[in-house]
Structure formats: C-alpha cells, structure tokens
Amino acid sequence: MRTQIVAGNWKMNKTFEEADDLINDIVDFVKNHNLENTAVIICPPSVYLELATDFANETNLHVGAQNLSNYESGAYTGEISAPMLESMEVGYCIIGHSERRKYFNETNEMIAEKVNMALKYNISPIFCCGELLPEREKGNHFDIVKKQLEESVFHLNKTDFGNIIIAYEPVWAIGTGVTATSDQAQEMHYYIRSLIKEKYDEETGESTTILYGGSCNSKNAKELFANPDVDGGLIGGASLKSDEFIKIIQSIDD
Ligand code: PGA
Ligand 1 atom 3: the closest Cα is on which residue? Predict the structure, then answer.
C-alpha cells in the first residue's frame, strides 16, 4: 500500500511563539496516536525548521522546508541550500509551488535544478504541479501538468524518482476556498499516475504518493482522500490551526 501523507504548508505565517504552540499541538497528537500508514509532515518557514526538527526527533513527525536554492553554496544572499537543510535533518522540501512560480518567476527548468539538488542531499522533493484557471477552461490542464512533469522530474532515473512525492495543486483552488471536486482530483491523479507508469513502469506508478492541494479542509478532506489515486493532501490555510489540521489527519487515517 502506498504511504499516505498529510503535509502542512505554513507558507509565510506564524510568529515564533505561535509556531511553537502549533508544533506542540501537532507533536502531542502524533505522539498519542498510532498512525498506521500515514506520515505527517510540517513545512514551517525556514527560521522555525530547527524548532520543528527538535520536536520531530522525539516522534514520527516529519519536517520539510518550503523552498531551497538551486545553488549549492556561495554568494547568494538570502538563499538556503540543500546541504544546510540536510545538516538540520530536514527530510522534505516543497519544490515548484505555484506561488514560487508566480511571485519568484520559477520556471520548470529551475525547478528541475532544485529537484536535483534536493535529491543529491537526501531530501525528498514534494513536487507541485497544476494548471491555472484559464488553462483548465480551455481544456489544457492535462497538457500543462504533463509538461511540468516532463520538464522538471521525468529526467530522473527510476531510483531517484522513487524519492519524489507529487502534489497536484490546481492553482485556481489554492487559497481561494474553491476546491477541485472529488472527480476532478481523481481524474488528474489517475492521469499523473498513468504518465509515471508510461515513463517508468507499473510498479513505480503504483508506489508514487500523489497528494491533492488546494483549499483542502476538514470538511472536504475525507471525500477527496477516499479517491483511489489521491494519497493525502498538501494543506495550506487549514494547516495553520491545530484542531483543523488534526481533523484532516484523522480523516485519512480512519
Ligand atoms: P491552501 O493551499 O490549502 O490554502 O489552498 C495549499 C497550498 O498552497 O499548498
């Protein structure tokens, strides 16, 4: 059975104290519940990663960054490198999020470099793909997602690809309160899985975890996660409140 994952993308939110409280609540929950086949990952802002990994060490909570540099080290003021993250025991990194594509001009090519950098330092990329609203309205959503996969992750060999988590995040659903319907999510996840099978093989396709992201919350999570090709979620807004995030974790694990 594929690993089911609930990952929280905190984006640029929370003060130190608020971050501390939220991590504590999640750690308490994870510690006291036997999550059978579900991994919980939190992706706080980078300044709180150490706080998170300190707590995570005591539990089976996992920690991810929200971004890393495509450079290894050097004079890149403000950037955070893969070796730095590895040295802090950060096991995951969101790469290719639509907000980074939009506000920081990240291209598929740059995202491919970041994916390579992450893998070189034993960090599993949570690779985000997804179409804009006009692209879906024109019926181009499958082609857009295919191109994102081809240009950013399909250059990997099978072993490296095995360390990737895919997150399908239709951009029109992110932070808008408009969620993809359960059928829309399943249809795209099935398509992504079939592309992986075509590119690699049946087994790789079957074992790749594909998350849904975009206005996922405690009310719609259960229905979304019940789809055969939806293996959990990348949660933004709803990961900022512990009770809401915990309900989402519970909706996948029961
Ligand atoms: P959202 O964000 O849940 O707030 O829509 C998801 C994401 O951007 O990863």
Answer: 236
Contact status, residue 64 vs residue 41, Cβ threshold 8 Å: yes
Pocket of ligand 1 (CB under 6 A): 9, 169, 174-175, 213-216, 234-238
Which residue range is the domain that position 191 belongs to? 4-253
CA of 85 to the centre of ligand 1 (A): 23
3-state secondary structure of 175: coil
Nearest protein Cα to ligand 1, atom 7: 236
Q: Which residues contact 123 (CB under 8 A, 6 or more apart)?
A: 65, 68, 82, 85, 86, 90, 91, 92, 93
- Looking from the CA of residue 235, the nearest atom of ligand 1 is 3
* pLDDT tens digits for range 179-196: 889 999 999 999 999 999
Overall number of domains in the chain: 1
Per-residue pLDDT tens digits for 136-155: 999 999 999 999 999 999 99
Distance 141 CA to ligand 1 centre (A): 18
CATH of the domain at 154: 3.20.20.70
On whether the CB atoms of residues 226 and 205 are closer than 8 A, the answer is: no
* Pairing mode, strands 61-65 and 92-95: parallel
